[in-house]
């Protein structure tokens, strides 16, 4: 199956954990994933003469929820692509735990603003698109996690935008990734659906324990969800701020509003 998937598709859908040897499958936790740390040391990325990232140093501890904000063109997606191994840095080092990132990373999954579902595959087949032994069990569990257990046999066309994003989230989670990269995943949703997706993501992350990196233009979203926010500006990190408040966070909390102000000043 993987032979007919493009490189990008494989980075999105990956291999199911069932492709591991049987002994590792039996030992692998079903509900909780092992978050991986992400470490960048002096990472530079150029496209021709245009240097987009000017030597980034960043350590994201295992299990942390990091939000990345910044102006359009600031290099946020470029950073995600490097972490996923879709692109290589021009200089510097990128590690997942102690392992150098060279090429596509099976432990890293991506979710985008558009769900990128295959229209001629039913929901369950979109979630388990990479197949592998036992794929259906993993896909059904991921669908249950996102609240769509009863929609497994539906076609993508009959789903709402929010439901499609839930399927995309299930597809990203089905292989139990150590790192989930979220590139503006809620940007096209209405406010209510967006709020529901926030709650869902926080609940699933608390249960599973993966490391999450969220790109967003919405500073309020970053502050509502993340443990920490960085601002990417002109190829460097202009602000790196922890958000220690408990969740759920109250909109209008003065401490959060003050952090939002600092972020907006640094963008
Ligand atoms: N494959 C590429 N070839 C040439 N230039 C590129 C390539 N990918 C990105 N760039 C350039 O790198 C810069 C950063 O792009 P990137 O997509 O990382 O920004 P971003 O912060 O994610 O922007 P946005 O918020 O609009 O999505 C831009 O100037 C973009 O044109």
Automatic annotation (TrEMBL):
Pfam families with a match to the protein in the record: ABC_tran
Matching Gene3D superfamilies: P-loop containing nucleotide triphosphate hydrolases
ABC transporter domain span: 38-259
Keywords: ATP-binding, Cell membrane, Membrane, Nucleotide-binding, Translocase, Transport
SUPFAM superfamilies: P-loop containing nucleoside triphosphate hydrolases
Entry's Gene Ontology molecular function annotations: ATP binding; ATP hydrolysis activity
PANTHER family recorded: ALIPHATIC SULFONATES IMPORT ATP-BINDING PROTEIN SSUB, TAURINE IMPORT ATP-BINDING PROTEIN-RELATED
Family named by the database record: Belongs to the ABC transporter superfamily.
Name the UniProt record assigns to this protein: Aliphatic sulfonate ABC transporter ATP-binding protein
